Amino acid sequence: MQQQQQALKVGLEQRLKLVLVASKFKSFEPSQYVDQIIQAVPELLDHRLEIYTIINELYNNALEHGILCLDSGLKATSDGITDYYKIRQDRINNIHEGQITIDFFYQPANKLTITITDSGSGFTAARYLTQYNLNQQSAPDRFFGRGIQIVKALTTLLEYNQKGNEVTAIINLKN
Amino acid sequence: MAIDSMLSDDGKELTIKIDGRFDFSSLQLFRNAYENVKEKPDLYIIDLEGSDYLDSSALGMLLALRDHAGGDNANVTITGANPDVRKILVITKLDELFTVN
């Protein structure tokens, strides 16, 4: 399967959908996709960084946990972090199956919906993490869940599906 | 992306300067910057003036440095953070664990 991209103009709405197959995980950079979004919807330029942050964090979660089945527990120590990213790279180099879809939908003048779906069996911690970060007690020095915490702060709604392999972020932009 | 480190003459302060995007792609360079110092300094200064962005992987790396430097007894200061970087530190409450100037 080839990487597919399509930009559909529906009235003033814009949809930019990207399907990444396993062979593309090695070279894909979320920033390139965000550049395409800005190219398609130039009025979002001022929001580039928050859009990038949301896509970067959610994509890495989908890849690392949904597809590569990496365990965040490794990240408790410096050596563990190094191991984590070494295993990440090894698995990316050897993976032949799996797919991640990023769907970006813009409804003027200020609503963005970003949906990221992976072909994994479900990121089991996803729903837990979403609730976990709502809890103000969560220790700031813990070693996981910070990506989701950042994304939650930048979005109006952040929701995983029941299976845990699809996350939807809705952003109401403030201009 | 580049990382420079500089130890003060008395060996008490280690400044690590990060340029460009700060994330896991600079993990090894970042670790080298503080692990290759023979004696642990009293103060670590992370200079982010040349860094316009950091993500959650970089935050994990900063926490690993803090742990290396003594955990709750560590003295780690972050300087030069732009408003976007500062916002990320506040959202994740890392501004409570690091001195942010």
Explain how this protein is built.
The complex is a heterodimer of chains A (175) and B (101). Helix content of chain A is 37%, strand content 25%. Chain A contains 5 helices and 6 strands. Chain A has helices at 30-40, 48-67, 78-94, 125-132, 146-154; strands spanning 4-10, 13-21, 99-107, 111-118, 157-160, 166-172. Chain A has a 6-stranded antiparallel sheet. The longest helix of chain B has 13 residues, at 56-68. Chain B is α/β, with parallel strands linked by helices. In chain B, helix 1 runs parallel beside helix 2 (56-68). At the A-B interface, helix 2, helix 3 and helix 5 of A face helix 1, helix 2 and helix 3 of B.
Give a nutshell description of this structure:
Chain A is of the alpha+beta class and 175 residues long. Chain A contains 5 helices and 6 strands. The model of chain A has no long low-confidence stretch (mean pLDDT 87).
Low-pLDDT stretches of chain B are none
Provide a count of the helices of chain B.
Answer: 3
What percentage of residues of chain A falls in helices of 4 or more residues? 25-40%
SSE string of chain B, helices as H and strands as E: EEHEHEHE
Q: Give the termini separation of chain A.
A: 39 Å
Key terms for this structure?
heterodimer; A: alpha+beta; 37% helix; B: 101 residues; 5-stranded mixed beta sheet; 3 helices
